[in-house]
Design goal:
The complex is a heterodimer of chains A (133) and B (301). With 133 residues, chain A is mostly helical. Chain A has five helices and two strands. Helices cover 49% and strands 6% of the residues of chain A. Chain B is 29% helix and 29% strand. Chain B contains nine helices and 14 strands. In chain B, the strands form three sheets. A seven-stranded mixed beta sheet of chain B has the order 5-6-7-3-8-9-14, sandwiched between helices. In chain B, strands 11-12-10-13 form a four-stranded antiparallel beta sheet, with helices on one face. In chain B, strands 2-1-4 form a three-stranded antiparallel beta sheet, covered by helices on one side. In chain B, a hairpin with a 6-residue loop joins strand 1 and strand 2. Chain B starts with a strand and ends with a helix. The chains are: A mainly alpha (133), B alpha/beta (301).
Chain lengths: 133, 301
Amino acid sequence: MVEYRIDRRSGVATYVQIVQQTKQALRLGLLVPGDKLPTAREVVEATAINPNTVLKAYRELEREGLVEARRGLGTFVRKSLGATPVDSPLRAELDAWAGRAREAGLEREDVAALFTSVLDEHFTNDHGKGDEE
Amino acid sequence: MTGTAMEAAALGRRFGRNGEWALRDCTFRLPAGSVCAIVGPNGAGKSTLLAHAAGLLRPTEGTLTVLGTTPAEARERFAYVAQDKPLYPQLSIAETLRLGSELNPGRWDRAVAERIVADGDLDPHTRVRTLSGGQRTRVALALAFGKRPELLLLDEPMADLDPLARHQLMGALMAEAAEHGTTVVMSSHVIAELEDACDHLLLIGDGHVRLAGPLDALLAAHVLVTGQDGGLDPHTVVESRTTGRQLTALIRPDGPLDDEWQTTEPTLEELVLAHLRSPGAPVLTLTGEDEDWPETWGAAV
């Protein structure tokens, strides 16, 4: 199960935030196929947002084939995203790298900038693909 | 989930034979299942409108229907929480809820009412007289929710609540709307908290409807532009300001805009403030006939 965190000052539409956070959970393996997403009722009770916003996000995820709505049962994950579960070796390498960067005296922003620049070198064509509206 | 929760046709109300018009020429339609914010300056007519919907006031002219009939006929199917949260001060909270159950035979949902009270850490034996303003609000809302209404009319419901209680009760409101398709109509001055919760907007100014319709459509109909001071014809200008050579304006575009303008979609706050500062801006009412109102609640709820 995931819990959504709505940032009202981010400038990102609320339903897009839900889509992005779901995808993030799928990428990290926090959600796997067969898992149930929280119901619209549960999400709006915790976040005080309009129910239609949640439904819009879930429809978007369904349209992308990531989840499916089963009538009367709920919305379920159909497939995962990427191949980077929380305990993957790649994550461990990145974790070690971040530790070294910190020891070297880099600030959080320095590390983020460095990471982004490398990311941009390797993934030139699909920058932010799928997350933008 | 189709149908009309509230509809006004040329609604007008005057207090006293030669008094001022508190409402005039109000025409709008609110679909069932929507969550609607009523906003407007102090004295605009928000409370008067809600009191008409609740059947406490009669129109001087025009009509207002709720749930497809007169407010009197629909009385059992809606709940109304007035701004001053009227309750019986000598009753305890438990007695107040019992009153709710006795007055709403066959409808009363004890669990939902008791949960709202319990969420506020209120002892059911406390007398209403000794409650703080925010606690009274909670009890009044518990009474309204317990009625399991099809339509909730709330006049400034969140005004005297602390931030946590606000968030909790707004969440509870949204949960009701999600699970039971309850239509919620609430007036408020706190625009930021309405933006994420509401899907319809009714902006009232000086007794008249200024903006009405689905929030998305109203926001999409407006553009904030900045650029070199120049002509904005043929677009409708709601508000414009010039600083040096720079012009900033909120407009309703009529056709494509010139490339030299920088454009952004306004936030709800920007939309409302611009209209409040420009009382002369033309009225805009959108119906949202093309909305795909969710029929898929079944799965996601």
